[in-house]
Fold this sequence. Notes:
It is a single chain. By secondary structure, this protein is an alpha/beta fold. It has a single domain (2-192), classed as 3-Layer(aba) Sandwich (Rossmann fold). It has 9 helices and 6 strands; from the N terminus they run βαβαβααβααβαβαα. A 6-stranded parallel beta sheet has the order 3-2-1-4-5-6, sandwiched between helices. Helix 7 (136-143) links the parallel strand 5 (125-129) and strand 6 (153-155). Helix 2 packs antiparallel against helix 9 (183-192) and helix 4 (83-93) packs parallel to helix 6 (117-123). It is globular. The termini are far apart. The mean pLDDT is 93.
Amino acid sequence: xxxxxxxxxxxxxxxxxxxxxxxxxxxxxxxxxxxxxxxxxxxxxxxxxxxxxxxxxxxxxxxxxxxxxxxxxxxxxxxxxxxxxxxxxxxxxxxxxxxxxxxxxxxxxxxxxxxxxxxxxxxxxxxxxxxxxxxxxxxxxxxxxxxxxxxxxxxxxxxxxxxxxxxxxxxxxxxxxxxxxxxxxxxxxxxxxxxxxxxxxxx
Length: 203
């Protein structure tokens, strides 16, 4: 069974890795694909360093963990990165594998607004991580009218108050981000000067 964890990963942080680890442990997954978005269809990525940098950080974040594999699928595909298309490509490349799409409950609550949500549910089991007081029951109520919603499974994960926004803001302010992101990612952010605020002219 393959877990699918997509997102901006702008940058990837310890919360992403904890989510992947818990899904792997609790859902019996063989491996988890970390898939950074190429062209985000529903929102503009803030302070985006570019898909190549985000992919490299995902590669560094998962390095040394046999459970995790960085995927270039969305980064290399032109056009909007729709999850329905990504799952279809994965199924075409591995038709015998069962796919599990991993989402936080807050994301899963909005699944009905996604591009072809029923096509998403037809191609993968939806695994929902408890988040911000929301869990599988609330998600079922929100998207229960969609075909395939009955396949939802839930799992718990430790609460970590870290976000990509927090990491970017700290990096922009010159504050350390180590321990919020894997060491290799922290080193990469520093080496590439990612998220640093531009120096005003004349200073």
